[in-house]
Amino acid sequence: MTAALVDRVRHRLAGTDIELTAAVVADAVRSEAGGVLADSDVLEALRVLRQEFSGTGPLDPLLADPGTTDVLVTAPDQVWVDGGAGLRRTTVTFPDEDAVRRLAQRLAVAAGRRLDDASPCVDGWLPGSGVRLHAVLPPIAERTCLSLRVLRPATHDLEALQRLGTFDDDIGLALRSIVRKRLAFLVIGGTGSGKTSLLSALLGCVPATERIVCVEDASELSPGHPQFVRLTARPANVEGAGEVTARELVREALRMRPDRIVVGEVRGAEVRELLTSLNTGHEGGAGTLHANSPAEVPARLEALGALGGLAPHALHSQVAAALRIVLHMRRDNGVRYLNEIGAFERTGDGLVVRPVWTRAKGWHDKGLLC
Question: What residues does the Bacterial type II secretion system protein E domain cover (predicted)?
């Protein structure tokens, strides 16, 4: 079966409004072939064209692997996957650059976005899959670049994380104490370090009599809790309408009689509303934040506060009154673990996070938590 035949069938089917069943595709293949085809040729055509019109094409098997966190396409013959132990090159390939571009554009449409020469970059969520899409077209990139991030629900409880070596028995008791004492906290770390897993496990320790309202960009948190309510942000559609931001949802959460308010990932102006909520009686709230170390957290919060119109001194006062604890997660050689526990402290120069416990040196101030 030639590439020209597949191309003719592709164009034939692209102009139809009927459902693309296997029978429809097979009839199109035979019609465009202009003669009798072997069953093996028809099956091969079905396989190729199914990849063109459904799912994520040849990337489907990679995304179906439960260990996959990222799938990256940097060229037709360069498809990489990260399963938590670092990137590795796969044997998956595309026929040519046009095939990568067609897939990227089809996925953009599925995400309700636009990707073409006039709008060569796209960021969105594939519906019903928990997969985040990012794509860039030439000439912004040398070749079409496609990045798919798999966000899997965080379902581990504290006992499971402890068995995995994330922390020991002593720290497990300290983490439960944080929840019991209603100390507001942030879980920080780099991408894939286990921030969401730890936050979800801690929320599972919240008493069943308390109501948790959570704001997320995508549905990642799945704590074992009977009163967990999720609000999910929504991007604008291709017309630029219909956006619902995390900042708006934090305000909505305040009207839903929450005992604890959680922001799955603090990444923008919503930090202002979160801090306000924590300072108005909603103790024990939480969130995650991208930061490489506890020492970087004050500066990171200052940058986000600026997006919400908070001056540094105002943010320092809000944080010092609202947030108490920082939990730092790390990933080394595919192993995720709790590296440090810190506490916010107001100083004459602003705000710092002082160590309470570190994996390397143990306790600095055990009395704060135990």
Answer: 55-327
- Is residue 187 within 8 A of residue 289, CB to CB? The reply is yes
Choosing from 150, 181, 205, the residue where a domain stops is 150
Number of domains in the chain: 3
Task: Confirm if 62 and 70 have CB atoms less than 8 A apart.
Answer: no
Task: Enter the tokens of residue 210.
Answer: 């308390």
d(CA 267, CA 247): 10
Residue 101 sits in the same domain as residue 176: no
Q: What value does the mean pLDDT of the chain take?
A: 88
pLDDT in tens, 305-325: 999 899 999 999 999 999 999
What the block records as the tokens of 317 is 């006062």
Q: What predicted TM-score, i.e. pTM, was given to this entire model?
A: 0.78
Q: How many CB atoms lie within 10 A of CB 180?
A: 13
Helix (H, G, I), strand (E, B) or coil at 312: helix
What element of type H or E holds 58? none
Gap between the Cα atoms of 184 and 274, Å rounded: 11
Whether residues 89 and 220 share a domain: the answer is: no
